[in-house]
Amino acid sequence: MTGAVPGAEFDPEAVRSFEHARWQAAAPIYGTTFAAATAPFIAPLLDAAGLAAGVVPDGAPAGVVPHGAPAKRLLDVACGPGFVASAAALRGAVACGVDFSSAMLAVARARDPGVRFDAGDAERLPYADAAFEVVVSNFGIHHVPRPLFALREAHRVLGTGGRVAFSFWAAPAENVAWRLVFDAVARYGDRSAASAPVPGGGFATPEQCADALRSVGFTDCTTLLVRATWRHRDAGGLVAALRAGTARMAAMLEAQSSATLAAITADIELAAAPYRDGEDIALPIAAVIASGVRR
């Protein structure tokens, strides 16, 4: 529980308020900072959701169907700047994004006017039962105060045979960028320094992802470990991106003193030396993509 207040009780409204404030602040710079870490997982996420890749003619509007396949109604939950919804539209889906951050929605709407973006809470989606054939979320479900509530809502808004897929960061053992940061904070800082509220739960393993899907009624649940690379000029760039585009990790880093943060950054730089590739460091990152079917 990065940065959770010791001894505090879970308060879903406190979590919602914390997350909302963080994403409101991150919205203007997310696309040029942390989005580079999440972008490599968009295509595998859509693949896991059963949304086939296709070629849409240049200049065609969102929703044009590739290869003559029937268009699928897709919802991107916790859509942020809307990159997943836009990618789905390019695959021929009738895509819609939903987010509780007005600042993120403003970025999404300005970036892609051809896709619909709605205001709404993942725990209480503003859509009718069986309104969609695909529901996806790229690193969004674990930010919801009660992830199981969000998955139940995904189940509700999917029609029979519809597919859900969501991504979640793999454990630091698989995620070098995260491991370097957490190891450095353990040596020089304090992981509990931030005053973030206690989270309502999340997913520490692929099995937990699949179990969560099954617990709300999904079947044929599978998980896939996907690897990618996140490039930075140096450790300072990595720390800056995490502070700009994350919630709990940003709060943890911001809570360190300036001298401590400098020591943490220097430690990361030293530990990242084996991953230096020319002028950059090429840090391995990994995510679990979990999917299931609504029967």
Question: Any overview of this molecule?
Answer:
The chain is α/β, with parallel strands linked by helices. It is 39% helix and 22% strand. It is built from eleven helices and eight strands. Strands 1, 2, 3, 4, 5, 6, 7 and 8 form an eight-stranded mixed sheet that branches. Strand 2, helix 5 (102-111) and strand 3 form a beta-alpha-beta unit. Helix 1 packs parallel to helix 5 (102-111) and helix 9 packs across helix 10. The radius of gyration is 19 Å and the shape is globular.
What's the SSE blueprint?
Elements: H1 12-30, H2 35-38, H3 42-48, E1 73-77, H4 83-90, E2 94-99, H5 102-111, E3 116-119, E4 132-138, H6 147-157, E5 158-169, H7 176-188, H8 206-215, E6 218-232, H9 235-245, H10 248-254, H11 258-271, E7 276-277, E8 280-294
Parallel strand pairs: 1-2, 1-4, 2-3, 4-5
Antiparallel strand pairs: 5-8, 6-8, 7-8
Descriptive keywords:
single chain; eight-stranded mixed β-sheet; alpha/beta; 295 residues; 8 strands; globular
Give the number of DSSP strands: 8
Q: Segments where pLDDT lies below 50 for 5+ residues?
A: 55-67
Helical fraction equals 25-40%
Q: What is the number of helical segments per DSSP (H or I, 4+ residues)?
A: 11
The major β-sheet equals: 8 strands, mixed
Offer a quick outline of the entry.
This protein has 295 residues and is α/β, with parallel strands linked by helices. It has helices at residues 12-30, 35-38, 42-48, 83-90, 102-111, 147-157, 176-188, 206-215, 235-245, 248-254, 258-271; strands at residues 73-77, 94-99, 116-119, 132-138, 158-169, 218-232, 276-277, 280-294. Strands 1, 2, 3, 4, 5, 6, 7 and 8 form an eight-stranded mixed sheet that branches.
